[in-house]
Each structure stands twice: as structure tokens, then as C-alpha cells.
Amino acid sequence: MRLRKEFEKLVNRFEKESKSSKVDMMNVFRDSLMFFESIKEALKEADLEEKKEIMKIMGEMHDFLRVEARKIAARAGLTEDQLQSFAENPSNFSPGQWKALEAMKNKLADSAQEVKEIINPEAAAKSKKAKATNSLSKKHKTSKKGGWLRS
Questions:
Q1: pTM (2 decimals)?
Q2: In angstroms, rounded to a whole number, what is the distance separating the alpha carbons of residues 58 and 39?
């Protein structure tokens, strides 16, 4: 399966980056985004067996990323929470780096959401309907006396 080869290539890339003294987050995000795009396209055309294999690959990817995050944190002498806090702090990056990282994170999140919708369209439709209902019910409510003039 083509995705298996792409996954192995991405794993090798992560391992190479994690051993480097300077991790190129932009390339890591870019490669991850390309992999998610491949997953999306494969899921659209996959039969049930192929979808099961894709889900297995996604599970392996999730597990791999958790292990790599632990390794990176340990090498830096940080806990995983501290590493996450560091990565979420814009003052640790130049403005250009931060803007690019945020754009990549947003693209990855959008891609992940699209994958969820492809995998389970019924749940995605229910979720969208619930969000729409919640946003309608959260409209500004005025008090009964809100429109009254006081003397």
C-alpha cells in the first residue's frame, strides 16, 4: 500500500529530525500535512479493508508521535507538558516562524477534521448540527426590562 511507504518515509524523517541538534519544525509539519492529505485522498476511494489498514496506519502514527515527543522532551530535559508549553509560546520563535507554524498547525487541524468527516460522515453531520444549534442558542439574551425606559 502506498500509504504504508509514505508512513515509513515520514517515520524516518521524524527519527532523523529527532536525532538532530536542531529540529526543523516547518519541514516536520509540512511532511505531516502532506501525509494527512494522502490519507484523505486514500480514504475517499478506499473499500472497507483499505479503510481498516488506513486506520491501523493512523494509530501507528499516533503512537509513534507520542513516543517521539517523549524522546524530544527527555533530550531537552523537559516534561511533555513543558515541551508543549514551549511550543505554544510565540516568544520562543521569530514572528515569521510563529506565523508559519500557526498556519501549518491550522492546516493540520483542518486536515484531521476532514479525515474524521470522511471516516464517519454521520457523526460529522451530527456534530455540525449540534454546533449550529449551540451557536443559535448563544445569541445575546436581553432581560425583560432591557428595553424599558426608566423614569
A1: 0.64
A2: 9
